């Protein structure tokens, strides 16, 4: 097999620039929420068919396709997530969402366009690489339990040796990338606490059990778990995001409900936080004479890159972006990402690809004003294509 030169890949990606932008804008106009990506799935399968690639639909919102190279090589999977968020777009872009209340506010429209570009690029070099590239167009990254587990259950990793993926990252300017040979993203869990007291007259607290008072103690005391109960060298965040209670200024609230999230990197730290939360809720409520409900949902596990695959992905990014623009010791962040599940099953790596403005800072992910610099699209195609070819050991 003749090696495929970097310049050939660069030219091929450059030639499809307009198409990448058009694909991404089409997806951006027609966003679909997690587990509802039927139209998106149909459209992706249609685009693949136009490339002569037959897609499988494990279920209505998921698309998997194999690109076959020459015989005898390994199989490398590349994943893109396809779902949008329940956010009302405020970008004012001419290709803004046409669905009220739904928006590609995390860049998954770009991920889908990039993976289609990789499919087109690698298909055009067919006969010059060995093995198989499996394209995973995954639904529902934004909503637990996520689409990755379902795809894995449907055999998406059967026969796969390695798996790679990327996230367009607005915290990095376009032209830069970051990754880490270890933990890159967090255990992302959520919880719900309901304090059940006893309602009464605001002037007679001794005849009631005040759920606002108990709940307020919990909000404060929960923060003590992170500052006093966890190894200071192990990061942890606990946020109470909602607190609802009460009816009127002179009525003691019979119940208070809180929801929130816990983020950790380390599994033992995660379990310690849960143990202490449970104990704190139980004893605080008992001391006040209140009952409680405590629900804790373990979300996506921490995303942990494998060192060798992270090295290959970083090397591909360096060739495309220049060595000075790739940080292979990029600090982990407390976001959650269900790509983590693939990395529990197979060696692989995940890259954060800059898609923010070259100067200044853009709107954060999930914001109504979030957008990406489309210059990142051909760069993403090149990096993933080069990394896949390297992992297939086709490049000389
Ligand atoms: Zn997101
Ligand atoms: Zn995302």
Question: How would you describe the overall organization of this protein?
Answer:
By secondary structure, the chain is an alpha/beta fold. It has two domains: 6-185 and 302-391, Zn peptidases (Aminopeptidase); 187-300, 2-Layer Sandwich (Alpha-Beta Plaits), CATH 3.30.70. The protein is 35% helix and 26% strand. It has ten helices and 16 strands. It has an eight-stranded mixed beta sheet with strand order 1-2-4-3-5-16-6-15. A four-stranded antiparallel beta sheet has the order 10-12-8-13, with helices on one face. A two-stranded antiparallel sheet has the order 7-14. Strand 1 and strand 2 form a beta hairpin. Helix 4 packs across helix 10 (376-391) and helix 6 (211-228) packs antiparallel against helix 7 (267-288). The longest helix has 22 residues, at 267-288. The mean pLDDT is 96. One zinc ion binds at residues 106, 108, 141, 167.
Quick structural overview:
This protein has 396 residues and is of the alpha/beta class. It is 35% helix and 26% strand. Strand 3 (70-81), helix 4 and strand 4 form a beta-alpha-beta unit.
């Amino acid at each position: 097999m003749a090696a495929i030169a970097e310049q050939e890949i660069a030219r091929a990606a450059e030639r499809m620039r307009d198409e990448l932008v058009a694909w991404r804008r089409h997806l951006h106009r027609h966003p679909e929420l997690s587990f509802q990506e039927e139209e998106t799935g149909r459209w992706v399968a249609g685009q693949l068919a136009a490339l002569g690639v037959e897609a499988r639909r494990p279920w209505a919102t998921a698309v998997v396709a194999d690109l076959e190279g020459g015989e005898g090589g390994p199989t490398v999977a590349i994943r893109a997530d396809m779902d949008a968020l329940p956010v009302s777009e405020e970008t004012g872009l001419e290709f803004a969402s046409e669905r009220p209340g739904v928006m590609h506010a995390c860049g998954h429209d770009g991920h889908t366009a990039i993976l289609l570009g990789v499919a087109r690029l690698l298909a055009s070099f067919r006969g010059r690489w060995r093995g198989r590239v499996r394209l995973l167009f995954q639904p529902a990254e934004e909503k637990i339990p996520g689409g990755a587990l379902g795809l894995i259950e449907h055999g998406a990793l059967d026969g796969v040796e390695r798996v790679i993926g990327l996230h367009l990252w607005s915290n990095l300017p376009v032209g830069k990338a970051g990754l880490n040979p270890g933990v890159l993203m967090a255990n992302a869990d959520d919880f719900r606490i309901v304090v059940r007291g006893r309602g009464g007259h605001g002037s007679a607290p001794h005849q009631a059990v005040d759920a606002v008072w108990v709940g307020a103690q919990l909000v404060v005391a929960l923060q003590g778990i992170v500052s006093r109960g966890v190894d200071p060298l192990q990061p942890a965040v606990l946020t109470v995001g909602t607190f609802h209670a009460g009816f009127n200024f002179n009525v003691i609230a019979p119940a208070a409900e809180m929801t929130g999230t816990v983020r950790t990197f380390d599994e033992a730290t995660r379990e310690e936080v849960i143990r202490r939360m449970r104990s704190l809720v139980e004893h605080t409520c008992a001391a006040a004479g209140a009952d409680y409900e405590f629900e804790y949902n373990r979300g996506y596990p921490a995303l942990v890159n494998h060192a060798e695959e992270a090295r290959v992905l970083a090397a591909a990014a360096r060739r495309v972006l220049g060595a000075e623009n790739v940080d292979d010791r990029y600090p982990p962040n407390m976001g959650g990402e269900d790509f983590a599940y693939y990395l529990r099953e197979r060696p692989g790596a995940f890259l954060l690809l800059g898609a923010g403005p070259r100067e200044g800072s853009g709107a954060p992910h999930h914001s109504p004003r979030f957008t990406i610099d489309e210059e990142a699209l051909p760069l993403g195609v090149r990096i993933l294509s080069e990394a896949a070819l390297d992992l297939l050991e086709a490049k000389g």
